[in-house]
Amino acid sequence: MAHAFPVNHPLRPTYRALGGLTGIYLTAFGVLGVADTSGQEFFAQNDATALWQGTNLGYSVIAVVAGLILLIGAAIGRNVDIAINKLFGYGFMALSLAALAVLRTDANYLNFTIPTVIVAMVVGLVLTTAAMYGKVGTDEQSRAAREATLLLETH
Fold it and tell me: What's this model's pTM, rounded to 2 decimal places?
């Protein structure tokens, strides 16, 4: 079934909050990871963990930066959060699939483990969902989106 993304969805504040909560989680994970791995090699491949996920200083810094950007986007709103959530959602899904491909090799530079791959994929899916249903627009754009959905359903 084809689907046109809604504008002014009734749950858009919930989706915006979901993006912000994801940013809080990533920031907390990253800060704990930086605290646990400080003083180690940036891309160390060891048994360092934060919140039961494999990490190293490199991935922890990436998580902190991504989390802060997501929080800033959620605070700004006005469809800025939609663009940020979409970008980071696709990015985390791609990162998790790439990490899964190199999980037990020397190319596992971010020190991912299976739990880290799962969490990164879930983060990507949550952010992508928040991006799809959180768009704010004018009443005219909202009507056009509803009409497009009705056209897609009848064909």
Answer: 0.88
